[in-house]
Each structure stands twice: as structure tokens, then as C-alpha cells.
Amino acid sequence: MLDVIKKAGIGAVEAGQPVQVQFGQVVSLQPLAVRLDQRLTLPSGALVVPESLAARVLAVGDSLILLRMQGGQSYVVLDRMVTP
Question: What is the topology classification, in CATH, of domain 18-80?
């Protein structure tokens, strides 16, 4: 098990940018879809939503902070942005 964790860590370091912060906007709730830019809308299958955010009520138009995982196949929804 320890060897597997070490290999995963080495792979992440060698990747250079294993995670990238991006911002998106909720465009649909059922199913959840988030638009990153005019060309790319992420379907619910590409989004990893933590329990802490799933308990909140999102609305169409909400701005989200996303972490793009290495390879760009999945995005972790970190939190919702608010205006100070």
C-alpha cells in the first residue's frame, strides 16, 4: 500500500501541474452542469461535489471555484464564490 501511495505522489510531482484552479458558473441544476467558458460546459459526470457543498442550495448563475485534476477529465467543486 505504501508503495502505491509513493508512486502516486511521484507521478503527481512529475506531472508539473497536477491541479489547476478554475472558475465556472452553474448553468443547470438537474442534472448539474457548470460552464467554464463559452466553449466548455462540464456535465455532472465530470464534477466531484463534496458533501459540504451538496447540502447547500445552488442556483443557476452561481459562481464556483473548481480544481481541474490532472488530465482534465474531472473537476472538484471546491466552493461557491460570494461577493464581499
Answer: OB fold (Dihydrolipoamide Acetyltransferase, E2P) (2.40.50)
